[in-house]
Write a structure and sequence with these properties.
elongated; 4 strands; two-stranded antiparallel ribbon
């Protein structure tokens, strides 16, 4: 699962969502979606702008957290297996 850590980063810097929207020119509603992790797609230009304005690395605002998956096929046709819980 991909996690957007924008709320954490803004809290560290004591910035509001409105502050970030003004500084980047990104719509406040889009910032809010990122902040609350309500988006399924992220604009790469937005990520770049946010990192530039907050003077941070991408790894400080977006991370991948491994999650166990049930058996299903990926787009490439590979099967994903749920991790064994008995180990």
């Amino acid at each position: 699962m991909i996690r957007i850590l924008l709320s954490t980063k803004l809290g560290e810097l004591r910035w509001s969502q409105a502050d970030l929207a003004r500084a980047t020119g990104i719509r406040p509603s889009t910032i809010n979606e990122y902040y609350h992790e309500l988006t399924e797609r992220v604009n790469l230009e937005h990520l770049d702008l946010i990192c530039e304005v907050l003077n941070c690395d991408l790894s400080e605002i977006i991370v991948r957290v491994p999650t166990p998956y049930t058996m299903k096929k990926t787009r490439a046709g590979h099967a994903l297996h749920k991790e064994d819980e008995d180990d």
